[in-house]
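Re: your question about Tubulin polymerization-promoting protein family member 3

S., sorry for the slow reply, the queue was backed up all week. Below is exactly what I fed in.
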Amino acid sequence: MAVSSDAEPLFVAFKRFSVYGDTKASGRELTGKAWAKLCKDCRVIDGKSVTGTDVDIVFSKVKSARVITYKEFQQALEELAPKRFKGQSKEAALQSIHKLVEGQEPTNVGVTKVAKTATVDRLTDTSRYTGSHKERFDDSGRGKGREGREDLVEHTGYVNAYKDAGTYDSKVKDADK
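Result:
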């Protein structure tokens, strides 16, 4: 396997894509989803000579488990290089594919941006809510969750048949206040 002298930027790209979108990722292995994203974002997939299917097939070939290591990642690039750069020699194709991937990082294409307009601010300002909607939020504007949506009754009682908390006398005294 030919290892380029500038394998460091390649490893940086591998590490960035391996941890992208996965909080539990260690950065030492790449999932199939991350591999496909890497190939798409780095323009290894061109839609003509290399497609998403080709990328998936190469991933299945080189993987030893459900993920690929950095060494297997290099093998996968080595397999895709001649297919992506057809007119070049094997070494030149490998160098070209390394140049596509080196130093790259995941892009956030298609991520929804938050709309900041006066209308949205007015509709989401909980201090202006009235009636039953106002009861769903505390003083800071945070939602109360289930407590704000439903009347929760404690089923602990002083008397067996009386299932609300406290005694009848204390209920009557609280009502009189």
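Residues 96 and 140 are 56 Å apart (CA to CA). Strands lie at 29-31, 67-69.

Happy to talk it through on Thursday.
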